[in-house]
Amino acid sequence: MELEYQHLPGLTSDIIIGMDFLIQKDVQLNFRQKTMKLFDEVIDLNVNHASRLDGIKGLEGNQLIILNKFLETELEHFKNSPGRTAAITHTITVKPEAEPCKQRYYPRNPAIQAIINEEVDKMLEDKVIEPSRSPWSSPIVLVKKPSGKYRFCIDYRQVNQRTVKDAYPLPQVQGILHRLREARYISTLDLKNGYWQVPLSEESKPVTAFTVPGRGLFQFQVLPFGLHSAPATFQRLLDEILGPEMEEKAFAYLDDIIIISKSFNEHLNILQEVLRRLRENGLQLQIEKCVFCRTELKYLGHVVNREGVRPDPEKVEAIVGMEAPGNVKGVRRFLGVASWYRKFIPQFSKLAEPLTELHNGKTHVPISSMDITIAALRL
């Protein structure tokens, strides 16, 4: 049986090829276990409940074909190899009176140690870290993700207390959302392990050292996550690459680059220029996390389209489903989540006042009053 395929390099999620192929190759799908059996090999499926292609139907006529041809040409320059820019170097400034911190580390069980070793080996291979003789040492922290996997982190809180914080400003979320409301087409570009694409100065590397139980001391060659000035350095880098001349149509927020336009052709022109600047500065994209030329986008807990900005219904549903807080920490958490949408809640400050007073320890709020306040905010 001959099968006909279309090449669509612009897709940002994996797909399962159509029914003809599934039947011919006797492909067995198990959605409960999220696996696919093909040629006697069992493959894990990465199931995206909210596809990044939602809203692609907003493209009209042959726009989707034009977009895919455009991406096929432009994205071939972006490979899976780690990027490394020469446009900026991150320097850690230690306070004059500060002494190096050497924190204790604890042995890990074999399963956790195996995860650590695997991550360390990968970082050594990619030249992200190197062996160290530093007097500094911070502990490894493994953070469990919703998927059940672990995120490798370093606890740099002690380092941050001993170093000077960069005051470079970060964009305000409300300002970004305001700019998005006028967009007809939107793209977001995700930089592959963005911070790791920024080299560290030689004198800064020892400050990032961390201990791997049973393997010794290592230090970063690139900007690690967890340093308090890392967001400022990365924001400065992207602001300089994009420049003031592109500010109205392309701007950065942390490790995302956002591109907006009112016409399809204009959007491709801007996108092409941004991609050129990223290439010339040695930066790599995480292509599967990029979103190209959408007419509607979920971003920062909001839905943005030609009609404006509104709260993401999924996020609102999560707030509505939250249990009433039973302590001050719970109140703080609820207020933090609810205040994210304060501009959509009339008289938010007045409604939240009982919880705010309880959070500040100024008064004792009766349970019934607290429940009423929470119910009002959920509306």
TrEMBL record:
One of its GO terms (biological process) is DNA biosynthetic process. InterPro entries: DNA/RNA_pol_sf, Retrovirus_Pol_polyprotein, Rev_trsase/Diguanyl_cyclase, RT_dom. Residues 124-304 form the Reverse transcriptase domain. PANTHER family: PROTEIN CBG26694, PROTEIN NYNRIN-LIKE. The keyword Kinase does not apply. PROSITE patterns: RT_POL (PS50878). The keyword Coiled coil applies. This is Reverse transcriptase domain-containing protein. Pfam families: RVT_1. Residues 261-288 form a coiled coil. Keywords: Coiled coil. It comes from Photinus pyralis.
